[in-house]
Design brief:
The complex is a heterodimer of chains A (about 525) and B (about 300).
Chain A (H helix, E strand, L loop, with lengths): L5 H19 L15 E2 L1 H4 L1 E8 L2 H21 L4 E7 L2 E6 L1 H12 L9 H4 L4 E6 L2 E6 L1 H25 L6 E5 L3 E7 L5 H7 L5 E5 L10 E6 L5 E5 L4 E2 L3 E9 L4 E8 L1 H13 L5 E5 L2 E4 L11 E8 L1 H13 L6 E9 L1 H30 L1 H23 L3 E2 L1 H31 L3 H33 L2 H35 L8
Parallel strand pairs in A: 1-19, 10-16
Antiparallel strand pairs in A: 2-8, 2-18, 3-4, 4-6, 5-6, 7-8, 9-12, 9-15, 10-11, 13-14, 14-17, 15-16
Helix pairs in contact in A: 1-11, 10-11, 10-12, 11-12, 11-14, 12-13, 12-14, 13-14
Chain B lengths: L9 H22 L2 E2 L1 H4 L1 E7 L7 H9 L7 E5 L1 E9 L9 H12 L4 E8 L1 H29 L2 H24 L3 E2 L1 H31 L5 H33 L5 H20 L1 H7 L4 H11 L1
Parallel strand pairs in B: 1-6
Antiparallel strand pairs in B: 2-4, 2-5, 3-4
Helix pairs in contact in B: 1-6, 5-6, 5-7, 6-7, 6-9, 6-10, 7-8, 7-9, 8-9, 8-10
The chains are: A alpha+beta (about 525), B alpha+beta (about 300).
Chain lengths: ~525, ~300
Amino acid sequence: MLYFTKIKIITIILITLIFTYLSFSNIFKFDDNFLKNKINLGLDLQGGSYLLLEIDNQPIISQTLQNKLIDIKKTFKDKSILVKNFFIENNKINFESEKVFVEEIEQIFSDKESDLNPYFEKFKTHQYIVENNNNFFSLSLSDYGIVLLNSSSLDQAVEIVRRRVDESGTNEPNILKRGNNRILVELPGLDDPARIKSLLGKTANLTFQFVSSTGSDGFGTETLKFDNDLDEATVSKRIILNGDNLIDAKPRMDTQSNETIVSFTLDRVGAKKFGRATTENVGKQLAIILDGKIISAPSIREPIVGGSGQISGNFTFQSATDLALLLRSGALPAPMNIIEERSVGPDLGKDSIKAGIISLIVGFSLVVLFMVYKYRIFGLIANLALLTNLFLLLGVLTMFGATLTLPGIAGIILTVGMAVDANVLIFERIKEEIKNESNKIIAFDSGYIKSRTAIIDANITTLIAASILFLMGSGPIKGFSVTLGIGILTTLFSVYFIARLLSSIYVKSNKDKEKLL
Amino acid sequence: MNNIRFNKYYKKFGFLSVILVIISLSLLSFKGLNYGVDFKGGTLIEIRLDISDHSVSKVRDVFSKSNLPNLTVKNFGNDKDYLIKFQKQNLGNPEYINNLKNEVSKSFPDINFRRVENVGPKVSSELLKSSIIAISLSLAAMLFYIWIRFEWQFSLGAIVALFHDVIITLGIFSLLSLEINLSIVAAVLTIVGYSMNDTVVIYDRVRDNLKKYSDIDIFDLSNRSINETLSRTILTSLTTLLALLSIFFLGGEILRGFSFAMIMGVIIGTYSSIYIANPILVRLNVNHDTLVKKDEEKN
């Protein structure tokens, strides 16, 4: 165990130097950085916000079923199949038919090429599960149908969230999908996420609907509240135009009324629709509705045909800017809720870094002093290995561009405390071996060999704990598991290569010394 | 070499441990754990007041104006920092924390919001579930590893020692009403690894000695093995404790619970690898033949 070939020695030194260099590149700015990576500070250290959003897909499911129901009715009508009592309950479409049609209906739903099964061609599975019980049919979305629905709404939502966060001017936001209906938003440096939260909390579904004066209309009416929650108005359910046709929106100062407004530009289709509707309805009130609330309901004084218009309604400059931003970035496919929020101010982050570094230095010094006191020259060797271990650990973290969190720093300090374990095990074993073996080199050799299984076993158990933390944990805890896990690997390297190399050099030149260890 | 008669006290300490485990279990089932916002849901706010005249009761008065359910206020680390917790989760209204901040700022113009955590009920119950799974999974993984590496008597001993450590550590948290959050779970998992580590080193020596000496019975042999590895056990525990104490005293308030759990865990883990893991080998009457038979079976 004490023999090293030249190649091995060179490799060990080289690896050590590379990682030490990498770890230093975090502190000093090297121009010739051959690896651009750096250790990133977690949100708990640099300050920032973490938001976990959950999409509520129920409205989309209801809408999908509603659309399906219309399709089904149409298909049956075309084929002259008599069905009745359509209703949707608990996310199931139910209907009743007569016995003679049962077979044909089942045939339609299982037919791979039927218009009712548009998904089959692509995914080789049905979007709906059809149950038939004494002529009562009930259709529900299959698991696959739901997964598909969730994932498409998640994709859309991530895109919209990204646009909104980007437009709000946040630095280096991190937006990730989590599971099948969640989005994680990390906002480094932003310790008060109030504005982002209010931007993300809105679906931003914009519609233009006429205020109904008669209270009845061919499309039905609904009564909606104004934004101030006090007044309400009855509007037609007919949607003249929605946010999809918007291509731009900007906050603006109206020179005449001295009011902040939001001006918008429509695409060609939108402009045409808007032009026609306003031409036919001069004098009527057009309600501008955002997420089920009326922002304002101005009267149409003249046809608006240019494809641009403006929204007024008690805006401050900030709220007009935000509304414009929401309209530009588009509507979310479904409402979202913020289900977890964590934010850390920059000065707490700084305090944490300071406390972390101080306790690392103190912990390291205590361990180092203790080892020198206990093992003298071999204590120094163990300490040298420990110091290298620290650089290796930081170097590996740098190489992977890992994120350092406060628990991560705790993991490094803990590694320092536990890293000497392997050397202690070896030294203690060597002490025992020296008692029965006059040849110091052989005693050292067998000390290393005999302690090996215990060291490997002991480290693997900690590695198991670290891996489970890595798999199950999130954020800061993941940072802890990463430093703890990598720490074990660098510890083994520093013990078996660096400390062993140094011991072998020392033992070979001092083998005749009476008390070696 | 040391020659301390650890085995003289096997029974006494075994009895002590049984009592401690029973006390811990009854604390856990009757008093329960003090779950933090991570697991219970709710809101946590850490503030710093530099200039304003302030005290715990003053801060409580200001916050209670906003009608917050289960409001608790305490000093956090020093007399300028306060930790405020309450149950309201109102995540549906994104303006709500902002409104609260504005409201409180009226009374304390110099207030500095250092940290805000708001965990919804769904997330908190998921975090609790995944933490329980993580701890169970790690115990199972340890059991499996030891079962592969050692004979079944050893794995039983190691697992009993592990449960002993985890239960008593949690019992202490229950007794002192210390908060259980995600970092405590990380600490418990690390304790599992550490305690195992300690037990494995002694067991490794027991196994060596069992092969070497066929005439010493396990009662004395385990004592011999403990003594042979004792200086290592003490040294490693000491260096680990030095590092942990440094985190505990200097690492800031956020890491205090974590380092406290680890310190307890290291002490209990060191104790249990001597006084739980070994007596079980004695109980199970492990002897020279246990190993030899297994080797023969292999061949």
